[in-house]
Each structure stands twice: as C-alpha cells, then as structure tokens.
Design brief:
It contains 13 helices and 13 strands. With about 450 residues, it is an alpha/beta fold. The protein folds into 3 domains: about 120 residues, no CATH class; about 100 residues, Rossmann fold (3-Layer(aba) Sandwich); about 200 residues, no CATH class. Helix 5 links the parallel strand 1 and strand 2. It is flat.
Length: about 450
C-alpha cells in the first residue's frame, strides 16, 4: 500500500506541476514527463527505507504518536536518499517537483494509517485474538490489564488474572492462584502469559516458567522496578545481556533535537532583540548598589547536573548569609521551608522592580544558548533544597530545566518551592513542543499581571 501511494503521489506531483502558482524560482512549464525508471526507483526507496526503519514492526506502532514519529523520520531519510539519487542521475527532476511529491506522499501515508486506525476501532473485529493471562493482580498487573483493554481493538483479549489474594475477586476477574497457572492456561487456551508479580514474589518466576515450558505460550515478565525510575524505564541490550534502564530520559532523541533547535532559534532571536535592554538593566544594577551586575548561582539541572545560572543581581552582595531570615521549619516533617517573600529585606531597590517584572531572569538566555537550560521546563533548584527532596520529587530533573514553566504560568511564587513538584511532573509527563509554545505565549501575560512575582 505504501508503494502504491508513493507511486500515486509521484504521478500527482507531475500532473499538478504545470498548475502551481508562480512561487519564487518556479519556472513555468506546460507539460512535464519523467523517466519511467523513476516510477520504479522512488517507491522502492521508500519501501526499503520503511523496512529498515521498523515502520512495519507491530511492537513499535501500538500508539499512534509512536507510529507517526517513526514514519516522519523514515520519510525524511527516504527523501534524502531519493534526493541523492536524483542529483546523481536525474538532474531534470526539479526541486519544486520533489518538494510537492514529498509533501503529497507524507499526507497520503499518514492519512491512510489514520483512516485504518479509525476503521479498526469502529468496525474491525480481529480475525485472530491473542488470549492473555496476567499473573499478579497488584498495581503493576492492573496497569498491564488496563493497557490490554485499551488496545483490545488490536486483538489483545485479557482473559483474567492469577493472584494468591483471592479477595481481589470482588473487583477483578481472578481465575485462581499463581500455582494454578498450568491448569488455567490449558483450560482457557492462553497464548500469552504476562508475569507482573511484586518484587517479594520473584522467587516464583523460575517455578512458573518451568511449569509452562512444554506449553505453546509466550511468557513475558514485567519487572516491578518502575517505581524506582526517574521517569520511565526501558530495556537495553548490553553485549547480548538485557538490562533494565531505570534512568531512561523523558525525551526521546527526536523530541530532544526539536526542543534544542527551538531553544537555539527562539533564544538566539530573543537575545539579539533585547540586547539593548540587557545593557540598560546592567547599568541600572551597577548604579543602584555595590556588587557585580550578574549574579551566578549554583543550580541543579537535568539529571542532577550542577551548573551556574545567570541572573541580574537583585539582592545585596551578602544575601546568602542572611538566608535564615526568610526560611521556616515545617512543623510536620522538620523540612526547611523556603518561600519567596514580598518583604524580603535582602532585595535592592532596582532589584524589587526587576523581580516584579521578571527582568532579572533575562540573562538566563545565555544559559539556554549554552545548553545548561531550556526556554521551558521545571525551574532549576538550589542544591540545598534538592538535598531535602523525596525520591519521587527528583523525577522533575528528567528534562532540561527552564526559564519558564508550567507552574510559573499557573501560580508563580505563591506556593512554597517544594510544592511546585506536582506541576513540574505534569509537564514532564505531558511534554510536547506545542506545550512549550503555549507556555511561552502565556508567560508575558502572567508577567504583566505581576501575580506572585517578588
């Protein structure tokens, strides 16, 4: 189907080429013909590239976002390969014709997959279901079960659970205890057994596997280590040995590349645009009080890396020695509570204005260009506050820390800093480049309101 659509896209690109509007560098043509060889080469390049890029691997396309991402990358690679072939052997193939072909082909290939998914969800009954049994009805097992039910349209049929706690029958379909696994597999014609036992029960896995060794079933193990992961876990192949990576980054390679390019382009434009403002603010800071113009402070960045964050100095030079004046002790857990105060005695006159308008944050654009920070993300935290974090709070460092973020546009400084973690984790778990753009667009409005800024 992909080969046919690619062939159709190439044909349509040739047909509509004479009717394209007069764009710059577009040479008018009345009629266009291509070598018949290209109608063989181009679809072949696309299909072979898709095969090598695992576009047709069912394990990688359960989620539509994963399929779209894989296809876009494969399309880009196929387009570059095809462009090289055209440059070497078919110089008459114009750039506008090539661009229109790639655009039409991408729309076709993505569009028919969307239609196919819609038809599967609405009308399709899988011709062959895979009957799945989950061993373990704890938190991990129930999560796997929910996922199976979400993708039942793909042919996954959750038959039930096995668990030694038979009291769970009230809310789940418990077919027996873990020891009954062989009898249940044979009775219900199970094809896939998913072991989702808690860590304390891992001693049963060997016995369970041996019990099923002569039956035609697939046995998969869901390790109960994901609570230890900073964000998500993955399985890596290290010299042929499968290993669970508990520190897998929250952003994949494509998301990280897009985010970095976005930071460099937008951050670079912003830095050049406001450079006169930076110079004026620097002079005002210098004239207002003794001390350096730029304040450099150690902060915790992505994956716990320490870096120097830049800000215009808004406090007296010895502000850190007076930190005890603005900290409190939480009586419930003894944690040091740090909360920005509007009457902070350490803030200078010009500093109060800079904080109210958030202009003191502008030098962080240089941190963005250096790669220490991003335009959008959780705020870099002070090391002494991070030392008091609970393990779950450290998940906020799974992405690059940012100049502005989700909690800044939803409350700013009105909450103690350690209570921003829920907002930061929401950003980590729901990241997209569109979310970054939304936060950036909303930030000026929040700054102009001045709510929570001091």
């Amino acid at each position: 189907m992909d080969a046919c659509l690619t062939l159709l896209a190439l044909y349509l690109a040739v047909v509509i080429r004479p009717f394209l509007p007069q764009f710059p560098y577009l040479v008018p043509v009345n009629q266009l013909t291509l070598s018949q060889t290209l109608y063989i080469i181009v679809p072949s390049v696309w299909v072979l590239t898709f095969l090598l890029s695992s576009v047709y691997d069912p394990k990688r396309i359960y989620k539509i976002t994963d399929e779209v991402q894989t296809i876009v990358i494969a399309e880009a690679v196929a387009a570059m390969i095809c462009a090289g072939i055209l440059y070497l052997g078919f110089r008459e193939f114009s750039r506008w014709l090539f661009a229109s072909f790639v655009f039409i082909n991408t729309v076709f290939i993505l569009g028919w997959r969307v239609l196919l998914r819609m038809s599967f969800r609405l009308w399709h009954q899988p011709s062959r279901e895979r009957r799945v049994l989950i061993v373990g009805a704890g938190k991990t097992g129930r999560s796997v079960g929910n996922l199976m039910q979400e993708y039942h349209w793909a042919g996954l049929n959750l038959v039930g659970y096995l668990d030694d706690n038979l009291q769970k029958k009230n809310s789940l379909l418990i077919l027996g205890s873990v020891a009954d696994v062989r009898a249940v597999v044979e009775k219900h014609h199970i094809e896939d057994v998913v072991v989702a036992l808690p860590q304390r029960a891992y001693g049963q896995i060997n016995q369970l596997t041996m019990t099923l060794h002569d039956l035609p079933v697939h046995v998969r193990v869901v390790p109960d280590y994901f609570s230890l992961a900073l964000y998500r876990a993955s399985v890596d192949d290290f010299g042929g040995i499968p290993m669970i990576n508990l520190r897998d980054p929250a952003l994949n390679e494509v998301q990280r590349l897009v985010k970095r390019l976005f930071d460099l382009i937008v951050g670079g434009i912003m830095t050049l645009t406001i450079s006169p403002i930076l110079v004026i603010i620097g002079l005002l800071v210098k004239l207002d009080s003794h001390g350096p113009v730029i304040f450099r402070q150690e902060r915790i960045g992505e994956n716990g890396r320490i870096f120097k964050m830049f800000k215009f100095r808004t406090m007296v030079p010895n502000a850190d020695s007076q930190r005890d004046q603005i900290t409190e002790i939480n009586p419930q857990n003894g944690r040091i509570l740090f909360k920005k105060r509007p009457d902070d005695p350490r803030v200078t006159r010009i500093g109060r204005f800079l904080r109210r308008t958030s202009l003191d944050e502008l030098p962080q654009l240089f941190n963005v260009l250096l790669g220490d920070m991003s335009l959008v993300g959780p705020r870099p935290e002070l090391p002494w506050l991070v030392d008091q974090y609970e393990p779950w709070q450290r998940k906020r460092f799974a992405v690059p820390q940012g100049m502005t973020g989700w909690w800044q546009v939803n409350g700013r400084s009105d909450k103690p800093l350690h209570l921003h973690t829920e907002d930061d984790l929401y950003y980590v778990q729901n990241y997209s480049i569109w979310m970054d753009i939304y936060i950036l667009l909303k930030t000026p409005w929040v700054v102009l309101r001045g709510k929570g800024a001091y």
